[in-house]
Specification:
Order of helices and strands: HHHEEEEEEEEHEEEEEEEEEEEEEE
Number of strands: 22
Oligomer: single chain
Strand content: 25-35%
CATH architecture of the largest domain: 6 Propeller
Number of helices: 4
Radius of gyration: 39 Å
Largest sheet: 4 strands, antiparallel
Shape: elongated
């Protein structure tokens, strides 16, 4: 084998080959740099390999530990918030010439139901077929065993609903924002739609066509009544500016609750009915007061077991409407309004139904016309729809038909 040449021999060989000293030194420096670069590249690759193995180990630990994954997400989100979490500098609004959400909603009549435990839904009115008086009805809403339908009414999808709670608060919600559900569906908790406290519940609903119509809101009123005979009248204009947290509609004293709310034009006649079977009729001469006022007496109750169960407001010039009353055992009848003489508010009133053990206590009062339909729901969720014309007219002192 041939032995490798020493550096001195290699240098002498280069000199003999005609290389100058400068060329030989340059070649030596170049070889030294290439050797160093090769060593540096080897170290760099080794370092990259070590870093990659550490990353793989870390990612495997994250995949195996859910808590560590959430810690990483929390840290990264906090970093984004710290870096970009300033207040919005622009405001997103609808222009006057833009299409609003309401324009995209098909206008139709819907049935809105609210259960005793606060579940709400809307259903197309066409899903409820008409039946004769005395029919068995159909399931109008699936509820829990301890729940039942508390409110049922018809409204347009383009209207705005005013919700009044038993503690005297008012909240707003567009009808099209109410979740749509099947006729026998349970619905959605109303606390998820409007900010009602857990210890409060909806007791009355008012359907308003357009809160932006100044002429309309300035010439209409909200009449409120409580279970302990108090009534109050407030301009609709004070309820025309929706607030997400609601507003105070009436001051409720201890032991009392808001019962009913009605929209009027200021020239109506008011009828209040109590559980013991009496009703009073008086003109709407209640002075308008602010939202925080208490109100005045509307009818006298007999004892602690008696209370107001309903209120209706009828236009003086409308002679087509009759008073419909229903007892808790399913007896009902219609009576002409003229059979209720006009008196001053705060009196005892007159008999509106004969309350017996067979009929039970009075539970509902409505003003109706023969061209309308009636929908009644019991505690088990069974709903029946019938024509008002199929309910006979009877005198005030009768017990009605089942």
């Amino acid at each position: 084998m041939r032995a490798s040449a020493t550096p001195e021999i290699a240098r002498e060989g280069l000199i003999n080959a005609g290389w100058g000293l400068d060329e030989i030194e340059a070649r030596a420096i170049l070889d030294m740099r290439l050797q160093r670069l090769t060593g540096l590249e080897r170290d760099k690759i080794r370092a990259e390999y070590d870093d990659l193995m550490k990353l793989i180990t870390h990612l495997k630990e994250l995949l195996a530990d859910e808590g560590k994954r959430f810690d990483v997400i929390r840290t990264e989100l906090q970093e984004v918030k710290d870096k970009f979490g300033d207040e919005r500098k622009t405001e997103i609004t609808y222009l006057d010439n833009e299409v609003s959400i309401k324009d995209l909603i098909r206008e139709e009549d819907v049935v809105i139901t609210i259960s005793h435990l606060g579940y709400i839904k809307r259903t197309s009115a066409t899903e409820y077929r008409q039946q004769r008086r005395g029919g068995r009805g159909a399931i109008g809403g699936r509820t829990r065993e301890e729940d039942y339908i508390d409110h049922l009414f018809v409204a347009s999808t383009h209207h705005t609903m005013l919700f009044f709670t038993e503690k005297g608060r008012c909240y707003w919600l567009n009808v099209y924002e109410i979740p749509e559900g099947e006729k026998n569906g349970k619905g959605r908790a109303i606390q998820n739609l409007i900010q009602i406290p857990p210890d409060d519940k909806v007791r009355a609903i008012v359907d308003v066509q357009d809160l932006k119509d100044e002429a309309f809101v300035n010439n209409h009123y909200i009449v409120l009544c409580t279970t302990q005979e108090i009534i109050k009248k407030t301009s609709l204009e004070e309820f025309s500016r929706p607030r997400q947290t609601g507003v105070n509609a009436i001051t409720i004293v201890e032991g009392d609750q808001l019962l009913e709310a009605r929209l009027t034009d200021g020239n109506s006649e008011i009828l209040l009915a109590v559980k013991s079977g009496r009703a009073i009729r008086f003109e709407e001469k209640v002075r308008p007061t602010g939202r925080g006022a208490i109100g005045v007496a509307g009818i006298e109750v007999d004892d602690k077991g008696d209370e107001v169960i309903g209120m209706i407001c009828v236009n003086k010039e409308d002679k087509t409407r009759t008073v419909l009353v229903v007892s808790d055992k399913g007896y009902g009848k219609r009576t002409p309004i003229d059979e209720y003489r006009i008196t001053n508010r705060g009196g005892k009133g007159v008999k509106t139904i004969s309350v017996t053990e067979k009929t039970g206590k009075l539970v509902g009062i409505l003003d109706v016309t023969e061209s309308e339909d009636l929908m009644i729901t019991n505690k088990s969720g069974v709903t029946i729809r019938m024509s008002i014309a199929g309910i006979s007219e009877q005198g005030r002192a009768t017990q009605g038909l089942n």
